[in-house]
Amino acid sequence: MRALVAMSGGVDSSVAAALMLEQGYEVVGVTLKQWEEPDGALPVAGCCTLADAEDARRVAAQLDIPYYVLDYIEEFRAAVVEPFAQGYLNGLTPNPCIECNRNVRFDALLERTSALGCDVLVTGHHARIVEVDGVYRLRRAVDDTKDQSYVLHMLNQQALSKVRLPIGEMTKAAVREYAAGMGLRTAVKADSQDICFVASGDYRDFLRTTHPEVAAPGAIVDTTGAVVGEHAGTADFTIGQRKGLGVAVGEARYVVDIDPRERTVTIGTRDDLLVSDCVVRDMRLVHTAPRVGDRVAVKVRYRSDPVDATITAVGDQWRFVFDEPQVRPAPGQTLVMYDGEFVLGGGIIIDGRREIERR
Amino acid sequence: MNHIYLDHAATTALRPCAAEAMAWAYTHANANASGLHQPARQAKNAMEEAREEAAALLGASRPLDVVFTAGGTEANNLAISGVALASSRRTVVVSDVEHDAVLHTARSLTRFGYDIKTVGVDRSCRIAPDDVANVVDSDTAIVSIMAANNEIGTIQPVAEIAAGVRAVDPTIPIHTDAVQAFVSEPVTRASTGADLISLAAHKFGGPKGVGLLVVNREVRIDPILHGGGQEAGRRPGTYNVAGIVAMVAAMKRAAETRDQFRSEVGRERDTFEATLLAGWPDAVVNGGGAPRLVQHSHIHFPGISAETLLIRLDQAGVGASAGSACQSGAVEPSHVLTAMGFSQAAAGECVRFTFGWSTKPGEGSDAAHRILSVLGELR
Prior knowledge:
The complex is a heterodimer. By secondary structure, chain A is an alpha/beta fold. Chain A is 27% helix and 29% strand.
């Protein structure tokens, strides 16, 4: 049996490769090259930096497995980078890492898995795949604090049947201990957080360079519509943002709405941010579709706990009514539904209120 | 399974004569050749003998026309930037299919106010001499046209191009990057008509990190590195005597055995292509319609991802390449194929197989069968 291991240069995928070897697989390591700076240099931040590719290469050499870097720059640019910029221009808060998983990485890797004569695709994600009676389910990781099932919600039955996630069965501490025990150079490496194509770490710098039209000044208004300040472009803002508003008011103020057409950013109190429901598009399901009336737990941000909700609409657009009002999720981010520890699927959050107004 | 190495254009095996020369030099000529003492004179002497041999092999008018560098890239940088910086003219003429060491050097000069004029190629990667003559004028500081393309293997009509340029203006210096051509094609000042010629040792069986630039005595050239006065002020840095004598030993051997190389390596390459095309009729030999280096085989496999094919071939014990490898090792779309009119998608379906002096009889046919077997699995 042969395994294709997606190696990011981090400790998790390094150990995943080692574990597959231990299980008797013939292992091939790959890294997807998704981005380069205009001068051809590799990114210095994020998950596919030159240093990371070198780490992956060195780990592969230590494990004595072949290792290749595959060029996906064009696919990534079209499916992730350009929609990311357009999203911000349209008042959204895109999540490029999720879009990448949904539209580039797994399709590319699964295609390569068969083209390179491999039987399974292995990644270093913290999540588990469970098979019962021919049905594959995606489950939260053993290490709850490191769980990444949220970013894998797009894996359907066909994908799940091919993917192996050996790291999901281990705590992060155990992963590091294993790596240290094998003397892998990535054992003590920090986790990466940054967006791979945003070298400076601030997406606003990236947008100003690639899409100068983001510089479109406008008004900051309060919830009554009164102008309380000005801004340099709506793309600088995210729903729920508190810092950097440039408006001095007594009580804490948050961005509660962004309207790129009117070029206005609305600020309000924390109470103004609360909403009772959430609408998503492009739902991807792990297996069977939940129905209207079903009770689910939903995560509307990567780093927040699931909250209880009821499904009130399915189809092109899904609506979730929260049991308790929630801080308004930013349109463009991802909602993932859970049944206990199991992922049911997920979609992209849209601005439900505007959709209603338009009808 | 034995590995069949078909990436000799990337680098080829070190010739035993070069290894011996290098070992000898590190033992008997290891002093700094710029010194005044006896060991220095011995090192200097070994190097100057090598320079005389290199000059003779390349038909340079005098040994001093040979400038030793740290490789082909540096030789190309020195030729383009060195000549442009010493000139009062401000235009550099290159072809679209030059190696990045030429193209990027020319591009870097635009920051200092120079213009670049480029000349295209046909579907076989061949440059039309008139196209070059038509873009040179009284502002042309240098013309740089490669002797043979490093990816496709297409041999360029450099002598004709040089004659055409001189008919417009006889004072324009002409450079040729002969890094890929030297091992199998006669490369001299007379055969190329060039005033400047770049070579890299490791492409013809010498060590890496050493090369040379022939600079005709009438060409004005500024140094691009700054330091000591070595190489008559044209290239500073302590002389790499061992590398230089090893390079020239390999050069000499390559020149002496060139006819044998052409017939033996050419036969392996031809058998390889015939076997491959018989078993996979979809395949197309790129540059097949033009004069080609005997060691090159650049093949388009319609519908097959070159990246996937290369990885599968690696697993099947055949080492080949596509495009040029970036720093991370990913295969990037080739500017050469783009210039030849290939779409991005078609360019991603082309693989380069290159043979060399250490290719063993039968490897061409063996490799073709392994490729056919992988192609069968990919279909």
